Amino acid sequence: MLDGIYKQTSAQMHKSLQALLKDFTTLRSGKVSINLVENVRVDYYGTPTPLNQVGSVIASDASTLSITPWEKNLLKDIERALQEANLGVNPNNDGESVKLFFPPMTSEQRKEIAKDAKGMGEKAKVAVRNIRQDANNQIKKLEKDKEISEDQSKKALAEVQKITDTAIKKIEDALKAKEEEILKL
């Protein structure tokens, strides 16, 4: 019974960490990544479709993304979607593909992106704390229903806190690594 709570808590906290790492991929660091356009949706025959499903997205060098549509008539739609995505650069349509040229980041931009990363890290910590609260409530309910003793309840609450501390440490380590990557010139 308690093992199930521990496993579920640990699994949910791991998912929070994975979600944070996925969010980090959308942040720009020293070189551009195709993940910067991961959330861009293109109007494909009336349906909002992810950009990588209507064309190939490649990072041709450290500061350029190139999007080549599989259907040439989508060039204007892709260009419009990229402008609306507000990525901080203007798309360049050369008739074959759309290119995004990212200038080197200033130190202010790096600090701003690091601040965004910190915000993402805080959101992940809040999610982990909410998961801990749910687990603690389940344990307290078991004790109240006399399914476990008071001693078992205290041990279980301590175990949930250990799982939480581990998850928070992993989040802080991931955040620190991402901040270093962003701020590195």
UniProtKB/TrEMBL annotation:
Query: Which keywords accompany this UniProt record?
Result: Coiled coil, Cytoplasm, Protein biosynthesis
Q: Does the keyword Coiled coil apply?
A: yes
* Coiled coil regions in record: 125-159
Q: Which InterPro entries match?
A: Ribosome_recyc_fac, Ribosome_recyc_fac_dom, RRF_sf
Keyword Protein biosynthesis applies: yes
User: Per its UniProt record, what Gene3D superfamilies does this chain match?
Assistant: 3.30.1360.40, Ribosome-recycling factor
User: From which domain of life does this come?
Assistant: Bacteria
Function statement? Responsible for the release of ribosomes from messenger RNA at the termination of protein biosynthesis. May increase the efficiency of translation by recycling ribosomes from one round of translation to another.
Name the family. Answer: Belongs to the RRF family.
NCBIfam families from the UniProt entry: frr
**Listed name of the protein:** Ribosome-recycling factor
Annotated source species? Helicobacter baculiformis
What taxonomic classification does the UniProt entry list for its organism? Bacteria, Pseudomonadati, Campylobacterota, Epsilonproteobacteria, Campylobacterales
The gene for this chain is: frr
